[in-house]
Amino acid sequence: MSVNIKLINSRVNAILKSLPELKLPIDVKAIAKSLGLNVMEYDLGDGVSGLLAIQEGVGTIGINPTEAPVRIRYTIAHEIGHFDLHRDKSDLFVDKQMIYRSVSSGDTPEKQQMEQEANVFASALLMPSNLLRKEVEKAKLDLASGDAIEALARKFDVSTTAMAIRISSLGLI
Predict the structure, then answer these.
(1) What domain range is 161 assigned to?
(2) Which of residues 96, 111, 126 is at a domain's end?
(3) Where is the IrrE N-terminal-like domain (predicted)?
(4) How far apart, in whole angstroms, are the C-alpha atoms of residue 47 and residue 127?
């Protein structure tokens, strides 16, 4: 099984095109609301960043309020990805703390793929390639520099780890 990046990018682009205005940082809570998703804070306990529960077609994203703001944004985008891509496969998704979560030994291959797809979706939603490329060109950034990656991470309101991975996956460094 492999992640269908073209499909994910087309789904994300459709969502971004539906926004009244595309500006940075991407407002993931507004996107969730526009998709009919409720976003609520829950004490999810240690080690759980977020969850998506779907009941009778209505999705609720639970976020752990003790997480860093950039982590909360990523979690919301990740859960939007599960809702958009996987709502026909499960009615509950629970996501552990770890950005770009690696394969967990207890996960089935299908679950591993769904997690990878939700991560790709979240990255594309929070750091749209066209906006990221524009910011890099506009600022004439040297992406080998940690300072440049930190500056982009601040502008997109994501972690430096997420930005570094996104830049690498787009072949910008």
Answers:
(1) 128-173
(2) 126
(3) 32-168
(4) 25
Give the separation between CA 81 and CA 32, rounded to whole angstroms. Answer: 10
Percent of the residues in the chain that have a pLDDT greater than 70, as a whole number: 91
- Quick one: pLDDT at residue 46? 78
Domain total in the chain:
2
What is the token pair recorded at 49? 């960043």
Residues 97 and 134 in one domain: no
Separation of alpha carbons 12 and 77, rounded Å: 10
pLDDT score recorded for residue 93: 86
Residue type, 29: K
This prediction has a pTM of 0.89
Q: Which residue has the higher pLDDT, 2 or 35?
A: 35
Judge if 61 and 112 occupy the same domain.
Answer: yes
Q: Are residues 90 and 149 in the same domain?
A: no
C-alpha 49/C-alpha 94 separation (Å) is: 8
Mean pLDDT, range 54-79, rounded to an integer: 93
Residues 23 and 102 in one domain: yes
Query: CA-to-CA distance for 54 and 138, rounded, in angstroms?
Result: 41
pLDDT at residue 156, as a whole number: 97
